[in-house]
Each structure stands twice: as structure tokens, then as C-alpha cells.
Design goal:
The chain has two domains: 86 residues, Urease, subunit C, domain 1 (Roll), CATH 2.30.40.10; 301 residues, TIM Barrel (Alpha-Beta Barrel). It has twelve helices and 16 strands. It has a five-stranded parallel beta sheet with strand order 9-10-11-12-13, with helices on both faces. Strands 3-2-1-4 form a four-stranded mixed beta sheet, with no helix packed on it. It starts with 10 loop residues before the first strand and ends in a 16-residue tail after the last strand. The relative contact order is 0.18. InterPro entries: Amidohydro_3, Metal-dep_hydrolase_composite, Metal_Hydrolase, Metallo-hydrolase_Enzymes.
Length: 418
């Protein structure tokens, strides 16, 4: 049950707590009054509701997800919790990824994200030969069906060894362009990686596409494909947005070397997305051995260099991450604990809202007058109250109106796993 009943039409949320940074003001949390009218944030207007200091956040932007993999755990559990176990299991499960299977699981995940208060999502789509012709049209249908509720983007996903100018990857790149997507790639150490990336940037530039990489998702300190991406970007002058995710190996490298790489990332102007929940699940896992190194990338050092940093959900209930629900408050709570965002800069909330919106090219996120009244209201008056509980009784407003937050029942998908 909602903790506060709100009126319809024009009204004012009196005495709410908001992050000062989202109003471009100095400091941490401040108390304000927010008017709501015609689906937008306005000056105080209409009947006032005393909110007793509860926290108001803008609806979230989830910049790195895998809607096509989501919720396959009942039929495709990771046998040992490792990265290779996940990779192998998902490849085997591709045989089940019909249009109906992908559509139903992805729509289920989107209903969860919407109920939790997310307004924009970038998903990666596994795009091996054959699967790309199935998943991309399904994505386009979902993007149209969800327009006005969740803005959707998609990036193709495949290993860097697929990039050959005369190879099958050209077809995938053309599909991405046809459906207005993002050209994506997984990078790992291999001979000839830089010339391959030069080709990749050329493919993207020819099609006027932004790019998104899975990078160095390993605890091997010798994995430095992030440097190669930066070098290829600087050498080619590629000028579309670039997002890079994971960057786990940085946490295992010599400090001097890792920080030198970050200087290169700043120079190249890359956007970084950290996926701490998935990385903590997979990295340094060995049966019977407690993990020592957890693979969380160097977000504080990045932010200090002006590198835009976002946090995102990544996988949900699949072999790469057995849990999750596309709930960005869960991501916020866990990232704060895992990456020690507390006792730090007061504007980390941007990493879950305005920063990923800018990095991905979604509509800007703000609490300023004139912004859409797409809001998440939590019964918490400060950060410790917000982080201490899952906020399962939050209120979500879209266009100024309270939405139904009923989550879909997992039983809906049971027949996909028979």
C-alpha cells in the first residue's frame, strides 16, 4: 500500500528532500516544494500535500541491461557460477530464443523496471548469425509498444573476433542501423585487436552509430583492451559517443598502470558504466574458495578525472547474474555499499540518472521546473534511511500521475521452461 495518498491533476509536494545536485545547487540533500501540473514539474500550485521530508528522485536511467537473456535461470542455470559457465550455458540456451520467447521474457523484465521507476533502458542483444534476425525485430516491436513508458535503446553483442569487413558482422551492423541501434562489441586480448577496432569504428561511422563495449571483464591484469579502444578512438578521430562497461581488470592491475590507463580514458572522452552486482557475482569465483578480488572498477579515480561514470543493472536471473529485477534503487543501494559511494562526493545520484541519460542520448533527467514529472518518492528523509530498506512501498509518478506498481508473477513464464 502507498505510504501517502496523492491527488490527481495539479498539486504540490510540500517539504520533500531532494539531491541538491539534481537542481544544480551546491551541497547534498535539501528541502524543497515541487509543483506538479500537466505532467511536468512546475512552481508550487494547486492543493498542497505535506510530505514530511520524504525523498524524491527522478525516474531512473538503466544504461546497461540484457533484456534478451533475462529470466532464463529456470531452464539455464549456471553450473558453477563462473564467467565461462555463464557464457557456455547462454550459448546453449540460444536454441530456445524464438521471437515469442525473447519477446515475453523481455516484456516481463520491462514491466518490472517500469514498476520500480525506470524511464529509459539500453539493452544489449546477443547477435550471433541467425539470432540477430530474430532479436532485433522483436526489440523494435517492444520499443514501439513501450513508447511513452520506457525509452528503449539496443546494442548488438558479439565477440571482437567477429569484426571482418567482408564477414557476417556486416549484416549485423546493417540490422543495427536499420533499427536505429548502437553498435556493440565484447573486447578481449587477441592478436590484431587495434586494426580490428579501427575497422569497427569505420563501420559505426559509415552508419552514423554510437558504440558500446563490454571491456576487460576479467581479473587478469594483463587484459588491457581498454587502452586499445582509447588508442583506436584517438587515432581514428571517431566522434560518436562511446560507452565502455565492466573494466574489471583495472582493479587487479598495478596502481600506476591503472591510473595511466584512466588518464587515457579521460583523453579519449569515453563514458564508463559500472556493473558491480554482476561483477561481484562472477569475478574471482572458485569452488570452495572465498573470493579475494571482486572486480569492481575504479569509479572514484574515474570521477576525479572528469570521466562520466554510470551504474546499471546488467543481467537479471540468468547465468551471468542469478538475481536482480531491473530495480535501480537496488543498484543504487548495492553500488553505494560495494563501491563506497558514501563518505564521498554528494552528487553520485547523477550516476543513476542524468549521467547515463547524457551518455546514451536519452532525454535529460532533472528535478528543475519544466522537467517531466517522472518521479520516484521514497519514505526516507536521508541517505541512510533510503539505503537501509528496499523501498518496496515507494510511489512512482509518470507524467505526474501515480502508476500501478504491481509486479508481474514469475508463473507467467512457466510454460517457457517446460
Amino acid at each position: 500500500m502507498d505510504f501517502k495518498t496523492l491527488p490527481t491533476g495539479a498539486f504540490t509536494l510540500n517539504n520533500v528532500t531532494v539531491p541538491a545536485s539534481l537542481l544544480d545547487q551546491p551541497g547534498d540533500l535539501i528541502r524543497v516544494d515541487l509543483g506538479i501540473a500537466d505532467g511536468k514539474i512546475v512552481a508550487p500550485t494547486g492543493p498542497a500535500v505535506d510530505m514530511a521530508g520524504v525523498m524524491v528522485l527522478p525516474a531512473f536511467v538503466d544504461a546497461h541491461t540484457h533484456l534478451d537473456k533475462g529470466h532464463i535461470m529456470p531452464r539455464a542455470a549456471n553450473p558453477d557460477g563462473t564467467f565461462m559457465g555463464a557464457l557456455t550455458t547462454v550459448k546453449e540456451d540460444h536454441a530456445n530464443w524464438s521471437s515469442d520467447d525473447v519477446r515475453r521474457r523481455a516484456d516481463f523484465a520491462l514491466r518490472c523496471a517500469y514498476a520500480h521507476g525506470t524511464r529509459a533502458i539500453r539493452t544489449h542483444l546477443d547477435s550471433p548469425p541467425g539470432q540477430d534476425d530474430i532479436s532485433w525485430p522483436v526489440f523494435a516491436e517492444l520499443r514501439d509498444a513501450w513508447a511513452g513508458r520506457i525509452d528503449l535503446q539496443a546494442a548488438c553483442l558479439g565477440g571482437c573476433d567477429r569484426v571482418e569487413i567482408d564477414g557476417r558482422f556486416l549484416h549485423t551492423a546493417d540490422l543495427v542501423a536499420q533499427y536505429g541501434g548502437v553498435l556493440g562489441l565484447v573486447t578481449y586480448p587477441m592478436e590484431g585487436l587495434k586494426p580490428l577496432l579501427v575497422k569497427f569504428f569505420a563501420l559505426a561511422a559509415e552508419r552514423h552509430l554510437p558504440v558500446d563495449f563490454h571491456v576487460d571483464e576479467t581479473m587478469d591484469p594483463t587484459s588491457e583492451t581498454l587502452r586499445t579502444i582509447c588508442e583506436a578512438k584517438l587515432e581514428t578521430g571517431f566522434d560518436a559517443p562511446i560507452q565502455v562497461g565492466h573494466l574489471c581488470s583495472l582493479s587487479a592491475q598495478d596502481e600506476t598502470r591503472a591510473l595511466d590507463t584512466l588518464d587515457l580514458v579521460a583523453k579519449a572522452g569515453l563514458n564508463v558504466v559500472s556493473l558491480p552486482m554482476c561483477n561481484m557475482y562472477l569475478q574471482d569465483r572458485d569452488t570452495g574458495r572465498t573470493p579475494r578480488r571482486r572486480g569492481v572498477t575504479l569509479v572514484h579515480e574515474m570521477k576525479a578525472r572528469g570521466i562520466p561514470v554510470s551504474f546499471a543493472s546488467d543481467n537479471t536471473r540468468d547465468p551471468f547474474y542469478a538475481y536482480g529485477d531491473l530495480d535501480m534503487i537496488e543498484v543504487l543501494r548495492e553500488a553505494t555499499r560495494i563501491a563506497h559511494l558514501d563518505h564521498s562526493d554528494p552528487d553520485w545520484i547523477r550516476a543513476f540518472s542524468s549521467t547515463p541519460a547524457r551518455a546514451c542520448g536519452f532525454a535529460p533527467t532533472s528535478l528543475a521546473a519544466g522537467a517531466p514529472a517522472d518521479l520516484v518518492i521514497c519514505p526516507a528523509r536521508n541517505w541512510t534511511e533510503l539505503m537501509a530498506r528496499p523501498q518496496s512501498n515507494r510511489i512512482v509518478l509518470r507524467d505526474g500521475a501515480v502508476i500501478d506498481r504491481t509486479l508481474p508473477d514469475y508463473a507467467e513464464l512457466d510454460d517457457l521452461f517446460e
